[in-house]
Amino acid sequence: MPGGRFAGLSERLRRAGISPRRVRRLISELEAHFDDLVAEFRLTGLSQAESESQAANRLGTEDVLAESVIARPELRSWTRRWPWLAFAVLPLLSLPVQFVFSMAAAVAIFGFSVHTLGMTPLHPGPVPWICEALQAYALWIAPMVAAAGACYFAARYRASALWPVVGSILIAILGAHTNASFQWSPALPKGAISAGIGFRFPDIGPAIGFRVLLTLVTILAPFLWVRRRESRCSLS
Amino acid sequence: MAQNSSLMSGVPELLVLRLLSAREMYGYQLAVAIRETTREAISLGEGVLYPALHAMENRGFLKTRRRTVSGRTRVYYASTPKGRRRLNELSQEWRRIAGGVEWVLAGI
Prior knowledge:
- The structure holds two protein chains of two kinds.
- Chain A has helices at 7-15, 20-43, 48-59, 62-70, 78-81, 83-116, 127-156, 162-176, 206-235; strands at residues 178-183, 192-197.
- Chain A is mainly α.
- Chain A folds into two domains: 7-76, no CATH class; 79-235, no CATH class.
- In chain A, α6 (83-116) packs parallel to α8 (162-176).
- Chain A is elongated and about 90 Å long.
- The two termini of chain A are 28 Å apart.
- Chain B has one domain (5-107): Arc Repressor Mutant, subunit A (Orthogonal Bundle), CATH 1.10.10.10.
- In chain B, β1 (62-69) and β2 (72-79) form a beta hairpin.
- The longest helix of chain B is centred in the C-terminal third of the chain and has 27 residues, at 81-107.
- In chain B, strands 1-2 form a two-stranded antiparallel ribbon.
- By secondary structure, chain B is an alpha+beta fold.
- The two termini of chain B are 26 Å apart.
- Chain B contains five helices and two strands; from the N terminus they run ααααββα.
- The chains are: A mainly alpha, B alpha+beta.
- Chain A binds chain B through residues 22, 25-26, 28-30, 32-33, 35-37, 58-60, 64-65, 68-69, 71-72, 74-75, and chain B through 26-28, 31, 45-48, 50-52, 54-55, 58-59, 72-75.
């Protein structure tokens, strides 16, 4: 059967807040049912075209099928009921989680290298580089990952752009105010590592402004551009 | 056959639960079974069956498992203990209503 037979229905259901996973399963079941009906009509002697037409009639029009799913609120995704949670609060909460995990990994690597491998500031090996990479991840990459997650899932669930935009802005601001530092110099016998979240409102320095803009420009701008293009395509 | 939606309310659920209490089936098999066992007295839009099945699965009345048959993955539906209890409730309700209607018809 043509792969795009239910493409319109699939898009309608996703826009109505049905989760992509459920839509995939529904479409797969409808496709299988359609094929079975075509085979049934073929056995009665109808041509392929006639069988497909009869099968489509028996299955129901796209409007009927869409309405039958949309009329059941229990089939809607939780992201439709709580978009603020899915696309703003959870991505925002993922930022401190990522920060804590990356700093915990740095501390673990630091401790393992000092206590188990017996490394010292004079012979640090790759430890400072690994810790600096984790620090860079926490400071620069984690906000982008959190904002990208919000935007990606909002696009996937065909959700309104409002909450991922709000979430990305909050993530960019919180991410820009996050600080982490790593020290392992000969002045310190065994080195030291520290991390923390700092807030300096309203003293917004150029570095913080740059970090906010970096997240917004790299993640939010492409997301909004794609959404605008999609809405133009659907209008035309 | 045209159906009165208010009279038909709950009937698809009753039919599905009754048929699936006997054996597990995938959507097409279920639609054929409804057609055959009701002698086409009840005609459901066959595609409309799926949201009903998904909703019943959500409510815990049905369980599913995937099986690959002849290269195609089928979702088989089966009744759960909760579904069987629901079937009993719906059957009793249906018999009560049908009995009431019978009494009215017999009295005319």
